[in-house]
Every structure is written in structure tokens, then in C-alpha cells.
Amino acid sequence: MIESLLKAASAFTFPGQGSQKVGMGLELSQEYAAARATFDEADAVLNRKLSQLCFEGPAEALKQTENTQLAILTCSVAALRVLDEHGIVPKAVAGHSLGEYSALVAANVLTFSDALKLVEYRAQVMAEASQRQDCTMAAILGLDEATLQDLCEAASSAGVVQIGNYNCPGQLIVSGDTAAVERVMDSAKEAGARRCLQLEVSGAFHSALMAPAQEQLQGVINDFQFNDPSIHVAANVTGDFVQTASEVRRLLIAQVTSAVQWEKSTRTIGAIGISHFVEVGPGTVLSGMVRRTLPEAICLNVEDAKSLDKVRDIAYKG
Questions:
Q1: Nearest to 93 by CA among 14, 35, 38, 15
Q2: Is residue 201 helix, strand or coil?
Q3: What is the pLDDT of residues 144-196, one digit of tens each?
Q4: Rounded to whole angstroms, how far apart are CA atoms 86 and 176?
Q5: What stretches of 161-280 show up as alpha helix (H) in DSSP?
Q6: What is the rounded distance in angstroms from the CA atom of residue 72 to the CA atom of residue 78?
Q7: Is the separation of the CB atoms in 311 and 302 below 8 Å?
Q8: Are 224 and 116 in contact (CB under 8 A)?
Q9: 220 with 121: CB under 8 angstroms?
Q10: CA 56 to chain centre
Q11: CA end-to-end span of the chain, whole Å?
């Protein structure tokens, strides 16, 4: 039996790059003033029509790193604010890569305005770093971590390649120079991987190739106000809860070149008794990862009016 969200310990998860789609956020903004105000705020802070890009596309522009990160952040915060208006709030939060910034807004570490400005800069320097080399990422399914790590080391003669995401049992992502990633994909198939899939991304995120972006982000991050988290926040880099504003700053810098410890983050949240996970923002990618990590978890999402109604029904049932 699904317990009321208002009684159960719940966590909000926030998606990262790759979950974008044309039309995201439109229905919520039409139905709820809080969502519309979020898009209006983003347009004003960024001095451009991000809302129009989210609602109307084109898809090619939306998937550019400089646009994608801001679009997903804004859609996630719009949904977050609508949930808050309905009294549905989390005990813990976590965000996948870019989604960590949405989680920090939810935990009152960053204001939405500052998150927009910081992500705008982050996306720009990551895009610039990506353009400096031929690089990519690939999903490796059905291979254990130790084996994949050995394959990355063996392929390092072809270039930089490392595990960039530890998503869930049986799903790992490698990131690096295209030649090295392709070599890992070939050897992973020979080693028994169920599937190897090159991702449609513009860079080798969470790898050493992002070092130039990391250095540039470090140069500006102290210009922004960070607060200690008001609720539990599981960090990408460690998979553990962060306690202070200074720790958040340090880990956001490290995150640019470090692997996303999503499976550990999920287990950390589950270990404090949380049973319900609500994915806030476009898509349900994270929900699938949570289910594979914690099979008993109740996974929901909020990205439009229909999904919000389902969450509301569960929140207020009984």
C-alpha cells in the first residue's frame, strides 16, 4: 500500500542533461502561476526568452549545452515551486550532474537567481572545453565496476577515458576522448557487456577533459552566496550528505571532473528511511535508476499537470 507522501519520508530527485524535450514546462506554466513566474524570472535574469525555447524549441537549439542546462534547471524549479504550493516538500534531495543545482535550490543553499547565473557560466565553460577535443560518453550495461575500470585503464593509450557516472547496478557511463571511449566499448562487448551505447552528448562530462571548465568555475564560484543546506542533500562526488556551504562549494568544483556517484547517493537517502522518491523535472530517467538500486522504493515524477495530479492524490489520500 502506498503511504501518503505527507506522512512518508520522501526525497526529491532532479534530472540532468539529456532529459530535455521540446514543450517541457509548458503545461505546468499554463496551469500554475508559480510555474509561470519561474519561467518569467529565468527570462528576466538571463535577459533572453528561455521559456520560449523550452516550450517551442527548436530541438537542435534546446540540446546545446549552453541552453540545455538552464532549461532543465528552470523546468525543475518550476515543478518544485508548484509542489511547495501544495505543501509537498522533501526530507532529502539529490540531483544528477546539472540536477545538483536544482537540488541546492530546493535545499535553500542557492537562490534560483544565483543558480541560473552560476549554471549559465558553468554551461558556457563546459561547452568551450568540449569544443577543444573530439570527445564523447557511452553507456555500458551489464558490466561490473572493477572490470570496466580495468578496460578504461587498458584503453588509456588511446586517450583519456574514465567512468563518469555510477548510475545504478548494471549501468555505468564512460567519458573521455572518442577514440578511447570507442576502444572501451569494443572491449566491453568482448567482456560480456549486455549493451554499449554511445550517448548523444556534446562533451566528455565528468572526466579530466573538463579540467579547463573546472578551473574557470572555481574562479567565479566564491562570487555567489551559499547557505548551509536546510534539508539533507546527497552530493554527486561523494554520494554522502553535505553539511555546510563551504563543503557544497568545494564539491561543486570537484563535480566537473569527478564521477557522479548516483547509486551511492540513492542508497544514502534510502538508508535514512526514505521510501518515496519524486523526480522533479522533465523525464523519468532517475526513477528507473532508483528502482534498480532500491527495488522497494516508490517512484513518482512531476513534469506536467497529469503527473502532478498523481502525486497530489498520493500526498492527500486517506
A1: 14
A2: coil
A3: 999 999 999 999 999 999 999 999 999 999 999 999 999 999 999 999 999 99
A4: 43
A5: 178-190, 211-218, 245-255, 262-270
A6: 10
A7: yes
A8: no
A9: yes
A10: 22
A11: 12
Distance from C-alpha of 38 to C-alpha of 51, rounded to nearest angstrom: 9
Joined grid coordinates for residue 139 = 553507456
How many helices and strands (H and E) does the chain possess?
Answer: 14, 9
DSSP one-letter code for 295: T
**Neighbouring C-alpha atoms within 13 Å toward the C-beta of 55:** 14
Cell 577533459 found at? 209
Q: Residue 74 phi/psi, 5° resolution? A: -65, -45
How is residue 254 written as a grid cell?
A: 570537484
C-alpha 165/C-alpha 194 separation (Å) is: 17
Which residue's C-alpha cell is 572526466? 207
Whole-angstrom CA distances from 123 to 71, 129, 214, 284, 314 are 11, 10, 11, 23, 36
β partners of residue 278: 12, 300
Question: What single-letter amino acid sits at 210?
Answer: M
Tell me which residues are annotated as active site. 97, 206
Cis peptide before 58 (omega within 30 of 0): yes
pTM of the predicted structure, to 2 decimals: 0.96
Q: Phi/psi of residue 16, each to 5°?
A: -115, -165
Q: Is the pLDDT of residue 4 over 70?
A: no
CB contact at 8 A, 5 and 318: no
Residue whose grid cell is 570507442: 182
